[in-house]
Amino acid sequence: MISLIDLLYKNEDLEDNLLLELITHLDADTAPYLFEKALEKKSIFYKDTVYMRGLIEFTNYCKQNCNYCGIRGKNTTVDRYRLSKEAILNCCEEGYKLGYRTFVLQGGEDPFFTDEVLVDLIQTIKESYPDCAITLSVGERSYESYALLKQAGTDRYLLRHETATKSLYESLHPNMSFENRRNCLFTLKELGYQVGAGFMVGLPNQTPTDLVADLRFIKELEPEMIGIGPYIPHDETPLKGSKGGTVEETLVMVALARLLLPKALLPSTTAMGTLDPKGREKALKAGANVVMPNLSPTDVREKYELYKDKICTGDEAAHCRQCIEGRIKSAGFRVDMGRGDHASIHIPEEASSVQIKL
Ligand code: SAH
């Protein structure tokens, strides 16, 4: 195991059969070495920095029916909400005051948010906060739509590929196309977005071979960001009662992603914190370098329930900001409130949030 980890560290790649061997044979004795090497690799590009993003969950309406997701359209028990433009701008204002310089706008695939509505929203946020990066995460849209949103000022787009195995993807996503999801990711890249792909760990019927396929896909796509989180069952979905992923197996995937794509921005996800009070700290120590505290108004937090027992649903934005900062520091890292672009991107000084020295 140790020599395989060293080889991966050195080459930043490993043949699929060796990745499979790692995934299936790592244990409590050898995994810590993998995490150590992943952290070492991360430090080369990002030192001890952890970037903060302000997350705004602005609509839980969704026309899709992903079998794992709590806000799937067919879940009639969800109390649906969509934030007004004013409410979203208020979140940004509060976030800006708290120091955030990236806003992540995430939601279900809500037909209310047409290109026109989203373009207006993005332009207004950009005019008010030109020094901030905007990340959108609103699912699959057309080439034209992605182009318009980019033109309006969107910097980044998160669209997890969810799983790189066609049969597994299709079994989880009724009426969605595996090819289209991948095409969306390639389109977003082509349009110049900083792109976030990613996948869930511990999905029903997912095998170690599927996870190798996920790693191979991200190695090929080379996204700037990779969101990896454990699948957590939700009672109001067709997958109710399934087992779900563990923190340990997710940590292994985070660390492997770091070693395969050393410069990637890797979030330590809320789902990790949900499974284990120290889950997010553990992810940071296994090579993650981004956290996304919630900026959504407290009265809608509980309604954006993708999975069971999601944490922090009652907390004010300022509380989340402080809580996560404390966790980052206690894990031995330094908070960076800047835009936090990918290591390969040079942002002109005046557009970035360089700290002014007095
Ligand atoms: N509509 C957007 C945002 C989806 S929610 C899109 O299509 O990209 C963001 C992510 O939450 C999803 O991509 C999925 O990977 C994750 N997610 C959804 N349900 C989940 C669950 N039950 N457990 C863990 N993660 C889940």
From TrEMBL:
CDD domains given in the database record: Radical_SAM
Transmembrane parts of this sequence: none
Keyword Iron attributed: yes
InterPro entries reported for this sequence: Aldolase_TIM (IPR013785), BATS_dom (IPR010722), Elp3/MiaA/NifB-like_rSAM (IPR006638), FeFe-hyd_HydE_rSAM (IPR024021), HydE/PylB-like (IPR034422), rSAM (IPR007197), rSAM_sf (IPR058240)
Pfam families the record matches: Radical_SAM
Entry keyword Magnesium: no
Known cofactor(s): [2Fe-2S] cluster; [4Fe-4S] cluster
Coiled-coil positions: none
Keywords, alphabetical: 4Fe-4S, Iron, Iron-sulfur, Metal-binding, S-adenosyl-L-methionine
Top-rank lineage group of the source organism: Bacteria
Domain Radical SAM core: from-to ranges: 48-263
Classification via SMART domains: BATS (SM00876), Elp3 (SM00729)
Name of the molecule in the record: [FeFe] hydrogenase H-cluster radical SAM maturase HydE
Organism (species): Fusibacter bizertensis
Gene name for this UniProt entry: hydE
